[in-house]
Design brief:
homodimer; 398 residues; alpha/beta; Arc Repressor Mutant, subunit A; Nucleotidyltransferase, domain 5; 3 domains; five-stranded mixed β-sheet; DNA-binding; ROK (chains A, B); Tscrpt_reg_IclR_N (chains A, B); WH-like_DNA-bd_sf (chains A, B); ROK family transcriptional regulator (chains A, B)
Chain lengths: 398, 398
DNA sequence: AGAAATAAGTCCATCCGATAGACTAAATAT
DNA sequence: ATATTTAGTCTATCGGATGGACTTATTTCT
């Protein structure tokens, strides 16, 4: 269906085949050249050629001779090199800053998580703190023999023409990408910025609850509610990159007004503040973390207000998800953040509603899973973005 | 991001470049080889080579020497050949059968529309009638010097493992693709079957209201309500091809039960039957066509029931569309079928609601347009599907 | 009108990268 | 030890894009 916009010449062909071989190595490692020839449909000769390029790029290395006792000459097994290429993932959230470095094999080589209240802090101050964190982590990764090939940052906001609106941070039209490029170490050139829900969805896809799924909806619930939509192993971003604003789907036509301008938005019944308030937990001075823990305690105790709050949230989520499932046809739904914590109470009623609503239309009802990476989904996804680019275009690291 | 699953070799490269050149000819015709070289980034030599292949495939021909008074030697302008390659589009609907033949330039070379009530008719009978229609149209196209390169069929149903469930036709698990392949003329080998809303969305995309849009939601409203989702010029089908079931989005949590198993589905307030019933128009013997005309008459007259009915439908559609727009981020919404007819009454309130709901989050509120092709969207889209395949892979026509 | 300039299109030698198949290497089976 | 089997390398070849020289058709300058 899609025709490439650019011409294809011999080098393009080589790039595509390099990526193809590298991808198969990643998927089947350790793997011999002979097997790669079968997997890719390329000749043994060509595979040997491509592999030798990948070796000089230091993306691939021969792993120990893992034999499995066949007949003829044993093959030389190849695997992704655990260095020097690495991806750096960063995250800014209302309540913390986080960073992690992944090597090509997807292993976490560095991680750091700093609790700090970023809500309402000056954007420049937050960016500087993030840059400092990035420098620390990058330095430690360097000591470990790793070179960061790129950086991606997860932000809880919507991107409009290169500027970020992040209500939960108090950011309005902040040129985050530019500020970060400025503040980050030079080797992190070409910083990418993306929505937290999108990157968390990718994190779960590559390293967490979505690994088997191939196509799903990741629900990112904190103060705001967003969704990352994965279809056929790729993120669905919509026309302007603003897809997935599940928090403002209407779930209660007669309900309360929302700051977004609408009425009865999901966020108003299933967002963090709404749930805590309805659960009878005061704003107070405490962190939302400890207030959430308190809510969970009351739920365990059987407190009536807490249960009414979570039932309302469950009903809202069910309505929104029935709609999303009907529109998007995913095969799994992953609950993250707040809703992963509340999974034990939320999942059964939502599952029932999704099965009922439109259930007769569909061959299979999507499964509902809690996030597997908890607060790390977004940083892992961010770092993975860099790795996935390297895998898709090995020559890009020059 | 995406790595091709298949190896790339010299011939693959050629195929891609052929498609690239052909696509540019389609987009910029009439166009000279020199200009194509600029547009594609391929050398003059290569372009000349590729064009000569396209000429022997009879996909491209030199159009009259349209000069624009430049200096040097004038170029030989190339255009898509208006034959012999053509695509055949078919449609089965509750109330009619339709067919059309498009040549490569997208011109309608044959069309036929047969009013017939297919609801509850035996599927085999309907398929045979469709095949007869296809044969007639194909024969006439043949007299006109056209060869049908493929056939696509639009059905108002959901596809589950190759079988169609089409409640509005009374079809359950009908192996439509197989039956059609059997019944249709041999040259139509490899018949494709797709959802009516999807093909109508493509029809509007290529030849109708979506031509400028690039990314939109097409609302296909008759007895059932479906949506075709176009993003970046491509159809979004979801994990199992069942995306776009907008009719079963929940818009009235306390509302009526729907045969799908859910409660308060959009179809129950904005589907054809629901609107007619609420508008006080009896079932009777008349066709839904004439009943709809009657509703429009009463709306013009200012009848209270009719207005209440359409207001309820508008509210439901607004809720569903606010959700869909938030999730999918299209830049346009196109109303088709029933809702195109009722556009004058529906569009203003929906537009207001979509602007309110989530309006502050988005840079631009999507435009709302009525369908430009009316009942022809789906057949045109179906035929266009064939043409788009030829354009994307010129060698496929051998 | 003739010459110079300009642009389009063709021809040819070359280069890049994949291929097929012969050849070498390293293991097991007899 | 020898035959067999499988892995990996080497070499000639082929398909297809390239760059630059060449031819052709038209406008502009003199």
């Amino acid at each position: 269906m899609t025709v490439p916009a650019r011409p294809t010449h011999a080098e393009t062909m080589r790039g595509l085949n390099l990526a193809l071989v590298l991808e198969q190595i990643a998927r089947h490692q350790p793997v011999t050249r002979a097997r790669l020839s079968d997997l890719t449909g390329l000749t043994k000769t060509t595979v040997a050629n491509l592999v030798s390029s990948l070796e000089t790029l230091r993306l691939v290395a021969s792993a120990g001779p893992v034999r499995e006792g066949g007949r003829g000459r044993p093959g030389a097994p190849l695997s992704l090199a655990p260095g020097p290429v690495a991806g750096l993932g960063l995250e800014v959230n209302g309540h913390y800053l986080a960073a992690c470095v992944l090597d090509l094999t997807g292993a976490v080589r560095q991680r750091e998580h700093v609790r700090v209240d970023n809500r309402g802090r000056d954007a420049q101050v937050t960016v500087d703190a993030l840059a400092a964190l990035a420098r620390r982590v990058t330095a430690r990764a360097g000591d470990d023999g790793l070179t960061v090939a790129g950086t991606a940052v997860a932000l809880p906001g919507v991107f409009v023409e290169g500027r970020v609106n992040a209500p939960n941070l108090g950011w309005e039209a902040v040129p985050a990408a530019a500020m970060l490029t400025e503040a980050l170490p030079a080797q992190a050139h070409g910083v990418e910025v993306d929505n937290e829900a999108n990157l968390a969805a990718l994190g779960e896809l590559w390293y967490g609850a979505g690994r088997g799924a191939g196509s799903y909806l990741y629900l990112s619930g904190e103060t705001g509610i967003g969704a990352g939509i994965v279809v056929g192993g790729e993120l669905f971003r919509g026309a302007h990159g603003a897809a997935g604003e599940l928090g403002h789907v209407v779930v209660d036509p007669g309900g309360a007004a929302c700051p977004c301008g609408g009425v009865g938005c999901l966020e108003q019944v299933a967002g963090l503040d709404a749930v805590l308030r309805a659960g009878g937990i005061d704003d107070g001075e405490e962190s939302s973390e400890s207030r959430l823990t308190e809510l969970v305690r009351r739920l365990d105790e059987g407190d009536g207000n807490a249960h009414r709050a979570i039932n309302a949230a469950g009903r809202g989520l069910a309505i929104a998800l029935v709609g999303a499932v009907n529109l998007l046809d995913p095969d799994t739904v992953v609950l993250g953040g707040l809703h992963a914590r509340l999974g034990p109470w939320l999942i059964p009623p939502i599952e029932a509603a999704v099965t009922r609503g439109g259930g007769r239309l569909r061959a299979r009802v999507p499964a509902l899973l809690p996030s597997a990476l908890a607060e790390e989904s977004a940083v892992r996804g961010a770092a993975g973005t860099i790795l996935s680019r390297v895998l898709a275009d090995p020559l890009s690291i020059g």
